[in-house]
Amino acid sequence: MPNLMREMREDLTNRPLSREFVLLKRCWSYWSKGYELEYYYDDHDQLESMVRVLQNHGLVSDITNDSPQRYIMSEELAEYLTT
């Protein structure tokens, strides 16, 4: 999971108020709302499983209401990644 954590850390450095993120494939069309972070299955093997581990620890919450998978990270995770 180090690569995913590194990417999340970089994203929060560039966009410190973003908490919502989506899981995508690069070949999918997706109309971003402009504030979500995006993580790609193409870049991370077992991306859903890694996010599930974070979810099991209460660090992210699933807020999916359609497609794609959407999550929101906890302030605890955001603080860990930015300190």
Topology, element by element:
Layout: H1 2-14, E1 20-24, E2 37-40, H2 47-56, E3 60-62, E4 70-73, H3 75-82
Parallel strand pairs: 1-2
Antiparallel strand pairs: 1-4, 3-4
What does this structure look like?
The protein has 83 residues and is of the alpha+beta class. It has a single domain, classed as Arc Repressor Mutant, subunit A (Orthogonal Bundle), CATH 1.10.10. 37% of the residues lie in helices and 19% in strands. The protein has three helices and four strands, in the order αββαββα. It has a four-stranded mixed β-sheet with strand order 2-1-4-3. A hairpin with a 7-residue loop joins β3 and β4. The longest helix has 13 residues. It is globular and about 35 Å long.
What name is given to the CATH topology?
Answer: Arc Repressor Mutant, subunit A
Counting DSSP H or I runs of 4 or more residues, the number of helices is 3
> Could you say which overall geometry the principal axes of the C-alpha atoms support?
globular
Beta-strand residue percentage? 15-25%
Rg, rounded, reads 12 Å
The CATH architecture assignment turns out to be Orthogonal Bundle
Specify the biggest β-sheet.
Answer: 4 strands, mixed
For this entry, give a set of tags.
83 residues; alpha+beta; Arc Repressor Mutant, subunit A; 4-stranded mixed beta sheet
Structure summarized in a few sentences:
The chain has 83 residues and is an alpha+beta fold. The protein has helices at residues 2-14, 47-56, 75-82, and strands at residues 20-24, 37-40, 60-62, 70-73. It is globular, with a radius of gyration of 12 Å.
